[in-house]
Structures are given as C-alpha cells and as structure tokens.
# Entry
Amino acid sequence: MGSGKPAIDHYVTPIKSGRVIVELGGTCEFEEMKPLVREVVEKLPFPAVFMSHKGMLAEAEDEKRLAAANLNPYTAEYVIKNAMGKTRNWISPYDRRWFFKHV
# Structure
C-alpha cells in the first residue's frame, strides 16, 4: 500500500547557479546546435544560457579584466576572508567558498 510521494531528494537534483548542465561534443558546430538548444533552454524552469567554450573563456577573461580594473579594495572576497561585518554569523558556507560569484 502506497503512502504518498517519497522524499524530494529521491527524484530531484539540486543545481547550483553557474553549473554546466549539458555538454555537447563531437563534430557539431555551435551555430548548428543553437536553434535546438535554445528550444530546450526556453523550456527549463530556471534562467539558463547556451554558451560555447570560446564564450566561457571570454567570460573568464572579462572577469579577470574587471577585477584588475576595480579600484575598490573592499571586494566580497576581502570582506569575507577578513570577517568584516560579522560575516561568519550570517554568510552561507557556499558563499564563503565562492564569494557571491554564483547567486
């Protein structure tokens, strides 16, 4: 006799922001797959981005450029590492590791 649904962790996979969910490989080109994957992205229940490896490298390069151009010494990383504002009391372990990069 059934007693209802099982616990949610049996049929749901948590996905944190900034994770790669699907990776395509082989002889397909980025432009060939764009219409197909765009259709899938629109059906997902969360915001998603279709990106090539070149796009990921460009995004990482942009992050480095912005970090180098930042004049403010009080970055999220600095504040968390130096426990300013009592961050140990209220910040999550995930944010302690990634410094609010994946929100």
Residues 8-63 form one domain.
